[in-house]
Design a protein that fits this description.
Low-confidence stretches: 323-329
Helix content: 25-40%
Radius of gyration: 20 Å
Largest sheet: 8 strands, mixed
Distance between the termini: 63 Å
C-alpha cells in the first residue's frame, strides 16, 4: 500500500477546509486536502447568505476586496413571517452569492499556494496511535494511506472523521432546496406552523435571491425524529411557493444541517472546523461565517500556541460567545418569534 506524508491532513475541501489549507500552505506548511467528491464539480446546498463580518474576515485572510472578486448580491429587503405577522427591514446590510463561486475561489487560492488535493477519495479508517489515515480511491478502487502530524475534519455535518474518532454519528437534520430564476430581491423567512404543534421545534422556509438566480428551501428538526420529516418539508415548500406565487421546481436537492453539540477537538492532533465541528446558524448565514471564523482561529492556534487544543477552543467560544450550535439557533429563532407574536414591524 502506498503511503503519503504531510504535516496537515484536512478532510473535506469545502469552504472551511480550503480556507484553512490556504492559510497553512501560505505559511509554509505541507497540506493535503482529501475530498470524497469531485472538487471541481461539487456544489454544496446552501442559501449563500454572507453576513458583513464574514466579508471582513475574507478581506483579512485574502487581502482582496470581496466585492471585487466575488459575485456578491446585496439584498434589498429582509422579511420574516409567521401566522400573518411579519418583521420587515429594508435597510438590512445582507449580501448573498451562489455558494459554488465562493467555494471555487477558496480552493483555487489554496492550490495556488501549494496545497495538494486528493479528490474522489473516501476516508475508511484512522489509526491515531500511528497517525495514519486510510483511504479508498473511488476512481481506480485502490487503497492508500496518508501519514499526518495533524488531522482536521472539515467534511460537513455528517463528518466521517468525527464519526470514526468519536464512535457516534453526528446528529443532523434534513433540509431541501431548489434553484429558480430570481423574481424578487427580497429575502424571506417564513417560520413554520408546526413549530407550535409539536411536530417541529424549529424550522422555516426561505426564499433567498442571489442575483440572477434564487434558492427556495425548507428545513426543520423534530422532537420525535419522525420518519416523515422530509415529506413535511416538501409540503411546506409547496405551500410557501403558493403563498409567494412562484412555481415550485421539481428538481429538489437535500442536505444536512448539524444540530449536535460543538466538538472542536478530540485530542492534541485532531480538530474540527465548520459544519463538522457543529458550528452553524442557518438563520443568520452563520454557516459561511463560522467556516471562516473556525478556519482562521484554528490556523492561529496551530502556528502560534503551545497548547493548541485549549487555545483553539478558547478563541472559538470567545468569538461566537455561545457554547452550542443549538443555542445559536434558539436565540435567533426565539427573538424573531417573540417579535412576530406581538405583531411588531421594523
Amino acid at each position: 500500500m502506498k503511503v503519503f506524508s504531510t504535516q496537515y491532513l484536512i478532510i473535506g475541501s469545502g469552504l472551511a477546509g480550503s480556507v484553512l489549507a490556504f492559510l497553512l500552505s501560505r505559511s509554509g506548511s505541507e497540506v493535503i486536502l482529501a475530498e470524497i467528491l469531485d472538487a471541481k464539480t461539487k456544489d454544496k446546498l446552501c442559501g449563500g447568505i454572507v453576513p458583513s463580518p464574514a466579508l471582513q474576515i475574507f478581506e483579512k485572510i485574502y487581502g482582496e476586496n470581496p466585492q471585487q472578486v466575488l459575485p456578491l448580491h446585496k439584498v434589498k429587503g429582509f422579511r420574516q413571517c409567521f401566522a400573518g405577522k411579519e418583521i420587515f427591514a429594508d435597510n438590512a446590510e445582507i449580501f448573498t452569492l451562489p455558494r459554488k463561486s465562493l467555494d471555487n475561489f477558496a480552493i483555487e487560492r489554496a492550490l495556488e499556494v501549494g496545497t495538494k488535493l486528493f479528490d474522489r477519495v473516501a476516508l475508511k479508517s484512522v489509526d491515531m496511535d500511528n497517525s495514519l489515515a486510510y483511504f479508498l480511491d473511488l476512481r481506480d478502487k485502490t487503497q492508500f494511506a496518508i501519514r499526518f502530524q495533524f488531522i482536521i475534519g472539515a467534511d460537513g455535518a455528517s463528518s466521517k472523521l468525527r464519526t470514526l474518532l468519536t464512535g457516534k454519528r453526528p446528529i443532523i437534520i434534513p433540509t431541501i432546496q431548489f434553484q429558480m430564476p430570481c423574481v424578487s430581491d427580497e429575502l424571506i423567512f417564513a417560520y413554520l406552523p408546526e413549530i407550535f404543534s409539536g411536530q417541529v421545534d424549529w424550522g422555516y422556509c426561505w426564499y433567498i435571491p442571489q442575483g440572477k438566480i434564487a434558492v427556495v428551501g425548507c428545513g426543520g428538526s423534530s422532537f420525535s425524529r419522525q420518519k416523515n420529516l422530509v415529506q413535511i418539508c416538501r409540503n411546506n415548500i409547496k405551500n410557501f411557493c403558493l403563498e409567494l406565487g412562484i412555481e415550485q421546481n421539481i428538481s429538489i436537492r437535500g442536505a444536512a444541517i448539524p444540530i449536535d453539540k460543538i466538538l472542536l477537538s478530540c485530542n492534541e492532533n485532531a480538530f474540527f472546523i465548520g459544519d463538522a465541528a457543529g458550528l452553524n446558524d442557518t438563520g443568520t448565514g452563520g454557516g459561511i461565517h463560522y467556516a471562516f471564523i473556525s478556519a482562521n482561529l484554528l490556523f492561529q492556534a496551530l502556528i502560534g500556541a503551545e497548547n493548541i487544543r485549549l487555545t483553539y477552543e478558547k478563541k472559538i467560544f470567545n468569538a461566537i460567545q455561545l457554547k452550542t450550535a443549538q443555542q445559536a439557533r434558539k436565540s435567533q429563532f426565539l427573538t424573531s418569534i417573540t417579535i412576530l407574536k406581538k405583531g411588531s414591524k421594523i
